Structures are given as C-alpha cells and as structure tokens.
Amino acid sequence: MDAPRLLACLQSDYAALRTALAAAPPSAPVPTCPEWTAADLGDHVAHVYLHKVEALLSGGPPHPWPPSDPVDLEESYVALLTEPTSRSPGEKAWSWYPPEQNVAFWIRRMAHETVIHRIDAELAAGRPVSKIPDDLALDGIDELLTAFLAFSATEWPEEMNKVPVVPGEGVLQAGSRAWTITLPGALVHPGASSSARATISGPPEEVLRWAWGRGGDAVVVSGDTAWVDGLRRCLVVATQ
Q: Which residue stretches, if any, does this entry annotate as coiled coil (predicted)?
C-alpha cells in the first residue's frame, strides 16, 4: 500500500475510533483488552500518536517518556497527521525496525495501530465492528508477520525461544494471499507450503482480526491445532 492510501485509512479509522469512544462510557471495559477501560484506550492511543510525532521531530526515541502532563487524543492525532505529511514518505526517520528507517514506516505502522484500536473502541461501545478493507487487512497481516513476528525472533531470540511451539510449517491464508511460517524461529515466507502442519484461512479482515486477537470468528483452522496454539503464543509475545 502506498502512503496516501494508508493515510486515508488512518483518517477513516480514527474518525470511527473517536465516534466509538464518544459513545462508550469512560469506565466501559474493552473486551479485547480486559485490563483497559474505554478511557484507558483513548489515553493509550493519544500517547502512541504523540510518541511517534516526537520520534519524528527528535530523530530518535523520545526522552524522557511518557510526558508528565495529560495528552489530548485529538491534538495528538492532528499532530500525527501534520508531521508525516509535511515530509516525503522516503525521507529518513528513526524507527525501531532497522529495515525501514523512513517516514513511510510510521505512516504504515500508525494506520494499522489505528484500525486495531478502532476495533477495540467499537467493541467497548457495544457497536458492530466496521469492515476493514481487504488491502488494509492484507497489508496489516504482512506487517504483523514480518515487522513483529519474524523480527522479534531475530532481535530477541531468547524470549521467543521460551515460547512452547510444535516444530514445523504452517500457513496463514487470507483470501488469495498466503504466508508460510516455520516454528520455532518464526521464519516467514510468501506463499503456501505443501507440507504445512496446519492452515489458518479466511477473508483478509477475519484473518487480521484473528492474528491480532480481535475476533476473527470466520477463520477456519485445519490440521494440527497444537501448532496453531504455538503460533498464537508467539504472536502475543511478538506484539507486547
């Protein structure tokens, strides 16, 4: 996905997130994040947005962090839109992901951060979850598998190797697109292996929600469910 399309998705999902948070009582629990209330969710998103703005401005991780003063969600969102769009997507910028040290990384990351937390906000408000476009869902799955799962296994192998898994390959199939994941080690390759122990398949939106622990009831799991359970544990560790 290109930067303009990702920014358009970010704007749309933020509008839905803001509307859902306005409809939810501040103390409403967030079903997909049991330790959070709706107020906690809004505060988290505000801090995430501001953190990325400060990272772009400073050229590195913000320090000190977090700020001592309250952070306003709307102000953070406006700053988040303003700072990346004032730069070229290819402009150099610090990120925690070494292969992508540019503004485009943060545009992509914040688009996916927003859609996942938009789901959280809608669930907290008791609203139906809005549809996720296929292109955004597919890109989100790819980001999760490469920039989180595979990267975590390379960057923090000691932690990932503690996760109990069933060795072997499995396939994540979202619509017509597939990824093969090898455990342990969380190696990720495009395409579907013919020797997979298990397959997780479904429409792109449902597979994305399943992978992030946000539902995905229409996903079909076939094969070795123990392998799938191991993948689930790896995804949880990689996204903490």
A: none
